[in-house]
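Researcher: If only I could read backbone structure tokens as easily as an amino acid sequence. Walk me, if you will, through where the backbone shape changes along the chain. I have put the entry right below:
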Amino acid sequence: MIDHDVLDKFFEGRYKILELENYLDLTLEGVMGRYASTSYAIGPEESEYESMVTEKKDAFGKYQNDGLVRIQYITRIFLGTV
């Protein structure tokens, strides 16, 4: 979180913080697809790939509910005049 002193200086003490909660329910395929689309993903050609897939499947199995895991988000909006 950004330090409130920094926000006070930036917005000259006049701002609001809004928080919006959201979520995304994913299947195992969705989890793997989101991971594969990241720049840091381990590719199939790398030696660690199979163990990564196993770990993701194990974690999904542990936390899934009816075949889905939920990723929860909080979006913070800092609203003010500069």
User: Anything to note?
Assistant: Residues 50 and 69 are 21 Å apart (CA to CA). The first strand starts at residue 15 and ends at 26.
